[in-house]
Amino acid sequence: MSLYHAHAGQAEIIRTIQKDQSYIDEIRGQLSEILLLVSQRNWFKYQHLCKLIAEILYHHYAIVNNLQTLGEEYTGIIQVDSNYVMLPNKALQIFAILLEYGGEHVVDRILTRLQTEIDRSEEILPEAKENLNRMLDGLKFIVPYVRGFHTSLFYIYSGKYHISKRLTGINYVLIRNWLKENHSIYGFRILGVVTLLQLVLSLIVKMVEQRKNSKADAANAAVKRVAPPASGGENRNYSSE
């Protein structure tokens, strides 16, 4: 039997995420303290990884043991598959967690590696290299905005807060459906529209600035190619006059 009628709303999902994040922050702080006790040098080098490790450990423990996260238990929601019928596959859940907390970093590393390989290649023409690098720069520029656009759409239409949940088809359903908060739907929709407009305006401003900078760089490069080099002999003649 499908549980689509019991799907969780924006309020329940956001409260779940906030509650989970508070526990993840506690784990991150403890990991950071342990790392600092082991070695101050390693703390400076690896402390930025504590948050990622804490997030993966927290969710991995719940998935492996078929448990709700503390945030899900707090709000009374559970994860189900794309058909709203049964619990999602463990491997799919783990993949969703890895995708959520490491996906953006992996995409950035892949794009950077592609640019490096393009620059090293001797078979690609300089003009083609420039076009490919410009395209990859555009992708790297857009990636941070994707999460924001997805979040604004969640506020407007509900559904999935995380991009990883959308890609894997994992949904949330409310166990105590009679406790669902419908009065906050319109507030979230207004928030979503405002967030979306802000992102669009920010993206337009950034694109205009980037285009101006690109034109300025191209103009400077053209001037350098056209301008003849200064002659030392001519300078001496002018100075003697």
Provide an overview of this structure.
This protein has helices at residues 10-38, 40-46, 50-64, 70-75, 90-120, 126-157, 163-168, 185-226, 232-240, and strands at residues 77-80, 171-174. It is mainly α. It has one domain (4-225). α5 (90-120) runs antiparallel to α6 and α6 (126-157) runs antiparallel to α8. The longest helix is centred in the C-terminal third of the chain and has 42 residues, at 185-226.
Name the features:
9 helices; single chain; globular; disordered C terminus; mainly alpha; two-stranded antiparallel ribbon
Provide a concise account of the structure shown.
With 241 residues, this protein is mainly α. The protein has helices at 10-38, 40-46, 50-64, 70-75, 90-120, 126-157, 163-168, 185-226, 232-240; strands at residues 77-80, 171-174. It is globular and about 75 Å long.
Beta-strand percent range: under 5%
Spans of 5+ residues with little confidence (pLDDT < 50)? 233-241
Number of helices: 9
Would you report the number of β strands? Answer: 2
Biggest β-sheet strands, sense, barrel: 2 strands, antiparallel
**Gyration radius, rounded:** 26 Å
Q: For the residues shown, what is the average pLDDT?
A: 86
Number of domains: 1
